[in-house]
Structure formats: C-alpha cells, structure tokens
Request: fold
Amino acid sequence: MLQVENIKKGFGGTKVLDGVGFTLEKGQVLSIIGSSGSGKTTLLRCLNFLETADEGRILLDGQTLWQTGAPCPPRQDRLRFGMVFQGFHLFPQYTALGNVTLAPKLQLKETLGRKVPLERLRAVEEQGRRLLAQVGLEDRINAYPCQLSGGQQQRVAIARALALAPDILCFDEPTSALDPELTGEVLRVILALKERRTTMIVVTHEMEFARAVSDQVVFMADGRVEEQGTPQQVFGAPQSPKTQAFLRRPGGWQQAL
Amino acid sequence: MSFWQINWSLLQGFGNTCVIFFVTLVLAVPLGLVVTFGSMSRFAPLRWLTRAFVLVIRGTPLMLQIFIVFYVPGLVFGISTGSSRMIPALVAFVINYAAYFSEIYRGGIQSIPQSQYEAGQVLGMTRRQVFFRVVLLQVVKRILPPMSNEVITLVKDTSLARIIGVVELLKNAEHFAQYGLIWPLFYTGLFYLAFSGLVTLVFRWAEKKLDYYKG
Reply:
C-alpha cells in the first residue's frame, strides 16, 4: 500500500503542491485529474524523486521511503516507482529492445562486475522481448524510435518502465502527445496492465478512460486534493463546486465558439 | 631539380604538417572534453576560470599564442625548452584547439534535452551512465558538422607553425625560392586541398555511420 502524506513543493515563490495526500492499495489504479497547473505532474515527479518535495512523507508497505528533510532516497527505493512520460523520452540510438534492456543490463554489470555471464544477459533480452510482446510490439523489437509511431513509442516506454518491475507505475499524461487515433492502443495497454493487477497512478485528461480504468479518482486544484473517491463518486456526484465546474467545462471547440 | 625531387622534399615538410595535425587532434579532442566539464561545472570559481581561459584563447591569434609558448618559458622563467620548435608549436595548437572544441562540445551537450537525463534517472541509471550510455553518442552525432569545420581549419592552421621555424609544408616549399622556384609554394595548395578533401570524406562517412537513428 502506498501512503502519500501532506506533500508540499514550491518553486521559487510559487507553491505548486500545498499538502497533497492519498492512499493507494496494491493492485489498484488511481487517476489524477485536474486543470493544467494544478500540480498533477509535479506530484508524480515528487513520487519518482525527479523533484524532492519540501515537506511530507511517502510510505510504501508501511516503510518510509522519504520524509521531510531527508535526502533523495537510495536507488533501490526510487526504483519502486516507474515512470512513463508524456513525451516518451526513448533513447533514440537504441532499438526498442535496447531501450527496454539498457537499464537492467547496466544493473547486472554493476552487481556482477564486467564479466556478466552470457545467460544472464540472454535472460534480460528474453524478458525484454516478452515485455515488448506484452505491449503488442513483438514484430518491432529491432526498430529504432524514429521508425515507430507515437503510440508505438509510448508502448516501448511502458515496456521499458516495466523491465525494472516497479511496485507502482506512474503515467504522466501518457496520451497527450499522441494523435487521437493512436491513443487507443496505449490506453488498451494500460487496461491490460490493470487486469494483471499492476498498481498504477495515471495523470490524464481522458475523462472517459479515467472513469473506466480507475478504482480511485483524485481531482486536484491549486496544489490541493479538492476531491477524491471512486469514479462513481467523483464523476457521478461531485461534491466540490470546483470539481463540478471542471467536469462541466466544455470541450475546446465549444469554448472557442 | 626535377619535379619528383621537389615532390619528395615537399612530402617531408608535409610529414611535419601531419604530425602537427594528428598530435593536435589526438590530444585536443579529449582535453576539450575536460575544458567542457570545467566550463559546465557546478563549482562557480572553476566555471569562471575555465570560461576566462576559453575567452583568452579564442580572443587572441593562434600565431601570437605560438610565439608566447615559444618565448615565454625561456624569457620569463629561464626554462630551457631545448632546441625543439615542434614541441612549443604543438603545445600552442593543442591548447588553442581544445578551447574551440570545448565550446562545440558544450553546445552539443546542452542541446540534449533534460528529458533524456530524467528518463535515465527514473530507470535508476547514474549520472555517469546516462552521460556515457545515452547522451554521448547523441552529442557526437550533433557535433560532427561543426567539428568537421574545425578540423578542416586545423589542416590549414598547421602552416602557422612556420613562424617559429617548424619546417612544415609551407616553409619547406618557401626555401625553393632561393633557387628561383616559386611554383612549389603555390603547389602546396594541392596538398592542403587533398588533405581537407580526405578529412571531409572521413566526416561524411562518420555522419553516414550515425544516420541509422534520428534525434
């Protein structure tokens, strides 16, 4: 179980997170929704220790990973979180398989020294192939990122994050950089991960998807959790006026008219 | 003196030109990386010092730098550098080119988006691993065109070594003037042209080699 308590984070004078907290049971999916600038991405970055929060506490299965004043935790603790970025951020000079296996291979090299037994490396590659097959890319294993569509690149990025077997996989708007016809393939992969009981935190603007995939929904506004609950509660009967306004807001085209 | 004798003599001068070229390249390429790390250091005094060094080296003529390296140790510090003219010339070339290379590297490194570092970081890679396994090759790919420019300039800059008496291609050709032969001087142009052409081909090959990916 993940417990996030009272996370605060400011940049210069601006308070981006103003005491955010939630809990997430193992095997469940949490969606974070909210307008741009509400602190969703910063929250994910704090969980992955790309930023160090100013205050708060992060506990995983009862063990404190980080709390106020502590430095960035050691690597094995940081690796309990995985991250999939909005912009994929694949390594362009590596193939799909190379992207998935680079970090596990480097870890092998660190623990076993220079001479890693060949069968251990093969096992890593085998796992990489399996993960790429799991995201539906078994026939694109040797393709470079520039030869893949956005949706395919994002699926490689998901396989890359899974290769380190994180306890919790975080997605930062995984489909926001994709053409509408490519979002489906990525969302399908996330849905399949849910069926495998992967614990996930998904920051998303896809409301229908959030409603369908989540066990829990958090609505953030101005660096705070404005409302949280089951999808039925948050989408079906929002209590806070801010949530109501956010969910009622018209689409881009209607706003333009 | 026959055409072939003159060619043979010029080739000896060209040998020295090649020595200056390759030694400078082999030493200035890694030294440039050290200078880059200095100029990008998080430790401010080191950063200022390195940037001041680059400013001075890029802001003064290479010819003057060669003079300084040649004369200053003896005149100011009383250090005898022996009779070698090649060594001071090489020192000046290496320092000068390391400064230029360092700025090309810095541009290359800073053009790699922060997101590549972050992607490596969330995969548990150390800063070192991210730099050598992810960033470096992307930097190499991006800096090849400006580096080819700089290396071609080096081919021709080798001729500056003659001012402290290094008998490289141009100085070698000059001495035929005392026999009333001026054409060897002009003829050296072909050597430089062929050399630059070769450098161009090597860089083109390298660029092609790294053409398998974009980004």
Observations:
- The domain at 20-168 of chain B is CATH 1.10.3720.10 (MetI-like fold).
